[in-house]
Amino acid sequence: MDPAPIHSLLREGQHIVVQVIRDAISTKGARLTTHLTLPSRNLVFLPRSKHIGVSQRLEDPVERERLQAALTECLTAYTPARRGGFILRTAAEGTGIEELHEDIRFVHRLWQSIEQKITPRRHWNITEAIVQFLIFTALKMKSVRLWVVKSS
User: Residue 92: what pLDDT?
Assistant: First the structure.
């Protein structure tokens, strides 16, 4: 089955929230997605998903199962509507429950602040500034993550 044409899904002037997944190169524009992700040190948060997964690079089945059980235990404190989806990153190997809790709290707070900025109000339209905020946040998180890993 072919995907629906873009013009049947969006109308001119409609505002959507996107994330840049690949920067523009030469004559090609940036690659965008509406499947937003927020990385942290041990997790990737998928705010509009219910998927729970483990990085394929974590090959030890015992560690994969332990991490998935720890994440599931951490998520019991959240209602399903607030939970979102998560992917356990390779860096999570050996991580304890408290570290996972910290990451979950961090990405939930970050998502809450983003949601407040992108929620339309009657007197306020979503603008390009929101997309720039998401790009800045993603870049900031990547640089912070690299800095933390390098300084560890």
Answer: 96
Is this prediction's pTM over 0.85? Answer: no
**Ordered alpha helix ranges (H), the chain:** 6-9, 61-75, 80-83, 97-118, 128-151
According to DSSP, the residues that pair with 54 across neighbouring strands are 88
**Bigger pLDDT: 37 or 127?**
37
Q: What burial class does residue 74 get, using C-beta atoms within 10 Å of its C-beta: 0-12 exposed, 13-18 middle, 19+ buried?
A: buried
Q: What tokens appear for 88 in the block?
A: 């356990």
Element (H or E) spanning 31, and its range?
A: strand 31-33
Mean pLDDT, residues 55-81 taken together = 91
Token code pair at residue 112: 């809450």
